[in-house]
Amino acid sequence: MAGSTPATLIYVPTMTISLQQVLPAYFEETRKASSEIWGKDLRFHKGEYIKIVAPSGSGKTSLVHFLYGLRNEYNGQILYNDQPVRQLTIEDTARFRKDHISIVLQDLRLFPEQTVEQNLELKRQLNPFHPPEKIREMAERLGIGSKLRSLCRTCSYGEQQRVAIIRSLLQPFDFLLLDEPFSHLDNKNSEKAMELMLEEAQARGAAILFADLERIDYFPFTRLFHL
After folding, report:
1. DSSP assignment, residue 26?
2. pTM higher than 0.90, yes or no?
3. Where does the source fall among the domains of life (predicted)?
4. Domains, the chain, ranges and CATH?
5. Is the pLDDT reported for residue 65 higher than 80?
């Protein structure tokens, strides 16, 4: 529209993400009745630990993508600090992700022809929260220190998941979104990764939103929803 001004993201210390009657465009309205997320009005605050139990086919990955702004084929509204996500410019969305929201995607999206260390250092340099030596420290803690110089494509999927987890922790964030981050890890390695993520979230006063197929005993959620 002539004379219109692009939306400008307003950054405030107390970060919130809100959902207003959100429902994937490809879901029937009847889905609202059985879901504690779809079709509801919800607000998530910085510092909360939110667990979303989501069986296959319930739209778990769609929800995480919607919250991160990767996709927008939904009815209703998602808001960052009361700013509708759909009204943000591409530049504002990129800036928001860089400064305020991090993610572990189910499909990881690593660079397969780069080494583990290169994948991590590239992320760290975009908006440094940690010094370079923190990469090795985290990798050693999660049992992939010996893989730093290996190409990502040569690593097992479980090793790649740990790379993606570390990558998500190298930037500032107010919200950390997790989509089945431990699907290829055993309980011991999952607990180690969860411990690291909790430490990093606490250091930032950040929220974790953890979507998975089942309830995880070692995630100390403050709010629980069934999708």
Report:
1. T
2. yes
3. Bacteria
4. 16-226 (3.40.50.300)
5. yes
